[in-house]
Backbone:
């Protein structure tokens, strides 16, 4: 039986499975350390569209179609779709998934949205609300710079703590059929705000939320740090990672030995000028699809805690001097 | 047992109950036909804050606290919160619910968000993921005009098809304890796009989605129009309502006799200059809380289909010439 566990978690009685996934990225991502692992790479970051926003929508559609095709599941069989992106009013998702005509829930959790979508897809599957669910998220360097920062042509300088928004989309098919990756539980995050206001240092804004959710997960499930082969955050980057290590140590835990961060994995900091690392809700999603899931499916990693992290801000809240609160959701993925 | 029903619906085996709700509105709403029914009314539309966005967050927090207080349920007992608003990156919700420290899922479904939040809260409760869930949404005339239209000081003319964004927030406590209103099922909407591009005629953009979800609900549950005492849409307004009647008639159904619309109910068109009616995800939520739920709880209405409607657009998609797709989710509410 499914049951609430501890203060913020759910332990699934009959685990839903992560059946298949699809990853689509842009040119820069294809030149990074994971470049040869993504399903689709586009030399054209507009993906044949006229705008970055439409391009991002197209990536979401492509990623969903890839996951469905690999699993041999028809679109009509998918009961619900859970999707989101970073743009105002989630417009990339609305444009992208419209063509699929799947009943849908629009989500926003900033860069934690892939965790939010996977958690809800797993919860809906475990509750027997349908045989298949889709979870999809995306981000795009062009649309995100326009949304949150400066026009690309302005060529502003980027501080060392800044991150580089990943152009990419990852989609995940969750269902009851057995596969080699099961979702055994989830820990849903609370909003954590340490009062930071620097939108060019997202890692620092999100690290407290990542710490909070990781510690809560260990407590709720009665586990130690090394009960996970890897604890993998979404896009803290180098700056956020070092803060996370400090915060976790203050809680009497140490995750230095088994922590990874998708933002650090996806780009080569030295040759790609990505400063603190990759970010965006396409960062964690494409890294999960292309790099993490194959290692769990093969059994190289038996149990992984996947923790996408989000900075809950808008240009309006930033301009009004509000702080940038963080949120992180954790998904327990196990080899089987 | 919970089970998927038809193509887009869920029928709950053991129904979750809508235990309590809270409604908070601004001055103009208090002067409308439902003015004396809301829980809290503020003469100051800034609710003591410095910005419209912070005011909207404060309304969400107030509405949640009201619902909890009426039910005598402590904040820590609420397992998950499902919330959203109309602003870019859902910033009103992030600011508003932070203080509650409840594990949260951020949502975006434009003005359909109250339906999305209620559906997920009911699904999570029926699946035994916790004893209590909160669903909350809001909108604010000041923040919405700034987000989607013109600065208020510009005093632009409003076309007759335009709607007036409701300043208000409604929160709903869903749980397993028995009350007089049960949520017996939900129908989750697909994105429906007829290609309309007029952001000053949201009713026309959303009516096709409302029709789609209502017809699907009748089909999935094997019901006739008059199996519902009322079918109540979110914010189609007068213009959208007449389009909805036409579209539904083309499907061989007639809902003229039992249709209501929260956008029509909340303002007096003749004296309040609200043109086609009220809108915003605070419109459906506050009307449900203050007007609809008491009638179901008393048994005056035995079964109501509550159908919040959303126009999935942003200023960016509008400026780029994209159409405005619609979405609508339906919640089946029954007296018991």
Residues:
């Amino acid at each position: 039986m499914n049951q609430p566990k501890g203060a913020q978690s759910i332990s699934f009685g009959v685990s839903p499975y992560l059946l298949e996934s699809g990853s689509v990225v842009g040119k820069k991502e294809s030149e990074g350390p994971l470049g040869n692992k993504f399903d689709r790479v586009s030399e054209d970051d507009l993906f044949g569209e006229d705008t970055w926003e439409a391009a991002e929508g197209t990536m979401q559609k492509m990623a969903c179609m890839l996951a469905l095709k690999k699993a041999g599941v028809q679109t009509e069989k998918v009961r619900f779709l859970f999707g989101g992106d970073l743009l105002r009013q989630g417009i990339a998702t609305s444009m992208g998934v419209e063509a699929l005509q799947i009943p849908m829930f629009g989500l926003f959790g900033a860069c934690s949205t892939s965790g939010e979508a996977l958690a809800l897809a797993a919860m809906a599957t475990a509750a027997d609300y349908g045989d298949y669910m889709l979870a999809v998220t995306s981000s795009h360097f062009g649309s995100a710079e326009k949304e949150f920062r400066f026009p690309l042509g302005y060529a502003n300088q980027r501080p060392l703590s800044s991150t580089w928004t990943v152009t990419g989309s990852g989609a995940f098919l969750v269902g009851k059929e057995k596969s080699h990756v099961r979702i055994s539980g989830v820990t849903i995050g609370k909003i954590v705000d340490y009062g930071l206001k620097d939108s060019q240092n997202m890692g620092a804004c999100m690290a407290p939320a990542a710490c909070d959710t990781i510690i809560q997960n260990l407590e709720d499930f009665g586990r130690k740090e090394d009960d996970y082969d890897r604890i993998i955050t979404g896009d803290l980057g180098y700056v956020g990672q070092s803060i996370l290590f400090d915060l976790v140590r203050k809680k009497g835990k140490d995750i230095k030995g088994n922590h990874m961060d998708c933002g650090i994995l996806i780009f080569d900091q030295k040759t790609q000028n990505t400063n603190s690392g990759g970010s965006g809700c396409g960062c964690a999603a494409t890294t999960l699809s292309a790099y993490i899931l194959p290692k769990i499916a093969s059994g190289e990693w038996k149990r992984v805690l996947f923790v996408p992290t989000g900075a809950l801000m808008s240009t309006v809240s930033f301009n009004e001097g509000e702080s940038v609160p963080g949120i992180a959701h954790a998904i327990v993925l196990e080899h089987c």
Observations:
- Chain B touches chain A through 60 residues (CB under 8 Å).
- The radius of gyration of chain B is 18 Å.
- Chain B has eleven helices and 17 strands.
- Chain B has a mean pLDDT of 96.
